Amino acid sequence: MSEVSHRLGQEIFIKASASLYPHPSLHARPADSDYVALCPKPETDMLTYFLKTRCSWFFRSRGANARSRLTAQTLTHASIDQLRYYSSDMVDFTAYFVSTILAACLLFIPIYSLYHVSKSKPGTVMGLIAMFTVLFAGTIALVTNARRGEIFGATAAYAAVLVVFVSGDFTSEAS
Fold first, then answer.
1. Which of 26, 88, 141, 161 is spaced 20 to 30 Å from 103 by Cα?
2. Among residues 77, 3, 75, 88, which one has the least CA distance to residue 40?
């Protein structure tokens, strides 16, 4: 048993590994720059990927704070002027905000449109339901990480809601 493990009265690491990861109570707290994430970020959806790759300039960190993190010891082939930091939290917030707005629009606009379409034109009503259902499925596929089965289920439920709205007495008759 190593000396570190022995002083703590419990086994953390033994032999050569004990000196690699000393117990925090025995040594000073490491600097924030010494921490590393050991798990990858969750898989991003296409909207978040688009915002990170094509619109990252919009989320760029401003001020000296971003530039002060860049040192001569940075391991990269790019120069300091070519490197940019962007706020991952702002990208995620923007993706959530856009997704919420799209979800609200895809619920309100079809109901508003179907409310004002005459029941005497069933072809138009069916065409609108089909168009909004395809638009909903495409939007779900682009702005979420949903799998095919989840997209199919959500789309079926969405189409069912639109059909129930049309078949009910909620729509107006043309005068």
1. 88
2. 88
Domain extent at residue 1 = 1-36
Residue 88, SS3? helix
Say if residue 110 is in the same domain as residue 140: yes
- Per-residue pLDDT band for 174 (boundaries 50, 70, 90) equals very low
Q: Which residue has the tokens 């010494």?
A: 34
**What is d(CA 70, CA 83) in angstroms, rounded to the nearest whole number?**
8
Question: Other CB atoms closer than 10 Å to residue 91's CB: what's the count?
Answer: 21
Report the domain count for the chain.
Answer: 2
Would you say 65 and 161 are in contact if contact means Cβ atoms under 8 Å apart? no
Rounded Cα gap, residues 87 and 20, in angstroms? 32
Give the C-alpha separation, 114 to 127, whole Å.
11
Per residue in 11-54, pLDDT tens? 455 666 666 655 555 555 555 555 555 566 677 889 998 998 88
